[in-house]
Amino acid sequence: MQFRTQIPISRSNQPIDYNSKVVSLGSCFAVNIGEKFQYYKFQTTTNPFGIIFNPVSIEKIVRRIVEKRFFIEDDIFFFNDRWHCFEVHSELSHPNKEVFLSSLNELIDSMYQQLIDSTHIIITYGTSWVYREKEQYEVVANCHKLPQKQFDKDLLSIEAIEKAIHNTIDLIQKISSNCNMIFTVSPVRHIKDGFVENQLSKAHLITALHSSIPQLPTSNYFPSYEIMMDDLRDYRFYAPDMLHPNQTAIDYIWKLFAEAYITSESFSTMSVVENIQRSLHHRPFNENGEEHQKFLSQLQDKIKNVETKFPHIRFHT
Questions:
Q1: What is the C-alpha to C-alpha distance for residues 53 and 142, in angstroms, rounded to an integer?
Q2: CA distances (Å), 2 to each of 5, 6, 174, 253, in order?
Q3: Homologous superfamily, domain 21-263
Q4: For the chain, which end, N or C, has fewer CB atoms within 10 Å of the first or last residue's CB respectively?
Q5: Residue 218 has what pLDDT?
């Protein structure tokens, strides 16, 4: 008897290995995936402009990068003792205007090269609900806790999301024609929008992606949302807020992702890297004891072997 509904996932024709360069953009689930790549020491960049939830804002920041449209003073504003930008997350905000602009534009420069070099870009959409700043009526990536009366809330149509998806891919392919795109919908439920409204939002994202991806040969869809809803449909897989997947769920979704999108040849290296990571966090009973010194010597040999084979890998010892 089957007590679960496991979702079949096809293996990628262009899988990721330790020579791949991966960029992960989008919602907080993009961070979860990015952290896994970082833990296993793949070459990866995650959300350099912070968490961005909606497809239009992701398209806007990708356009800035690809077209090298640097930020100017008109693109930022001062509020609550810090300078902010509607196109990026609050974590980048800064009390000094010049430092803020400089750091944003340095990110554009670095991300331009990283998109050129990228072999795989993972984009995680979180919601179809957007906020438009009333004065310019532009979709914002972050409201930065400004008064709600300054914004209109809007649900992106399926057509608008499709346009954002196609534009994002077209922009990236201008500078990285061989890059593989992996799209997914975040399994995090945005209940602040309402229960029915969250389902509507996710439905718009899923519909737009499934109507767009078949037309794009270098793009794939990974069903992280479906895995959470249909395979892991139990509250024991949720964090205490009952909205975010807990670590067990994240680990499980990552396992399915790795099986579909990472080369089987990379698994042995991943296993060695994981062993090293765990060993680096090992706390001995006797730091000066003979057994621990032997353990440290063997650990350094493992680290040297991995770093020699893959020069981009560095462990913090």
A1: 9
A2: 8, 9, 47, 20
A3: SGNH hydrolase (3.40.50.1110)
A4: N
A5: 84
Q: At what angle do helices 195-212 and 158-175 cross, to 10 degrees?
A: 50
Lowest mean pLDDT among 98-102, 213-217, 273-277: 213-217
- Residues 293-317, mean pLDDT to the nearest whole number: 91
Q: How long a stretch of residues is the chain?
A: 317
- The whole-number average pLDDT for the span 229-245 is 93
Contact residues for 179 (Cβ-Cβ < 8 A; gap 6+) = 115, 118, 119, 120, 121, 172, 173, 218
pLDDT of residue 317: 63
String of DSSP letters for 113-171: HHHHH-SEEEEEE--SEEEEETTTTEEES--TT--GGGEEEEEPPHHHHHHHHHHHHHH
Cβ-Cβ contacts under 8 Å for 223 (sequence gap 6 or more): 7, 9, 184
- The four Cα atoms 49, 55, 57, 58 give a dihedral, to 10 degrees, of 30
Which residue do the tokens 């809330």 mark?
153
**Rounded Cα–Cα distance for residues 198 and 195 (Å):** 5
- Local structure of 23: helix, strand or coil: strand
Q: pLDDT tens, 20-71?
A: 999 999 998 899 999 999 999 999 999 999 999 999 999 999 999 999 999 9
Q: CA–CA distance from 211 to each of 1, 8, 130, 290 (Å)?
A: 35, 20, 21, 62
